[in-house]
Amino acid sequence: MEEKIKSVAERIKKSNKLTVLTGAGISKASGIPTFRGKDGLWNKYSPSELATYQAFSKNPKLVWSWYNYRRKIIKSAKPNAAHYAIYELEKIFKDNFTLITQNIDSLHRRAGNKNILELHGNIFQTKCLICDKVYFDDKIYEEEELPPRCRFCGGKTRPNVVWFGENLDRNILDAAMAASAQCDLFLCVGTSGVVQPAASLPKIAADIRAYVVEINVEYSGVSIYADEVIIAKAEEVLPRIVDLVKD
User: Of 11, 83, 109, 120, which one is the catalytic site residue?
Assistant: First the structure.
C-alpha cells in the first residue's frame, strides 16, 4: 500500500487540475450513522419511504421530524482527517480544484472547502415552496414548531435536499460533469459508485483519459474505471497522501 500512496501523491503533484468526488464513506469516521439502526423511532421507516415528495405531501410533519432528527446528529458531528486533507488539496490547487459531494452533511464546508458542488443538496438549507427562497437554517426545531414556516413569506417549506424520484439541480450537475471532463486527475473517495448520476462522473473522467484514483474500504462501481485503487480508510490514507504532496 505504501507504494500506491507514494504513486498517487506523485500523480497529484504533477496534475494541473484536480476534481474530487466524495460519498457517505468519508463521513463515517465522523460518527454519522446511516439512520437505519435497530434502535430508536426511525427503525420503522426507510429513507426511501420518507425521502420522497409523496411522503412529504402526505405527512410533512413526519418528514420534517426525521430531518430534524438527522440535523441534530449531524450538527454534533465534526469533520474528520479526510475532510481536512481535501481542504488542504483545495489550498494547493486553488482555482484548479473542484469538490463534488453526494453528502448533505456540510462537513466539507466546516472543514474549510469553498469550491463545492453539493449534488444532493444540504440538510442545513431550507427551501420555501411558495416564494422559492433557499436559506441557511441549522435550527433544531421543537416538535410543535414543525413543519417550519418560511422566514420570508410564512409559506410551506421543505429541506433543500434531493429526494428519491427528483432530478438534481441542472446547473450543479452540469458543473460537476464539466469538472469531471476537464480535470487531469479525478479522486473518488468513499462512494459506492451505484447512485446515478454521480456514478457516471468517474467514467467521464476516465473517458477523457484523466488519471482516476479511488480510495474506499472496499471495491465499488468506481473501481472498474480507476487507474489506482487504494482499499483503506480515507481518514488514514488521505492525510498521508497530502503530506507527500506538500513535501
Answer: 120
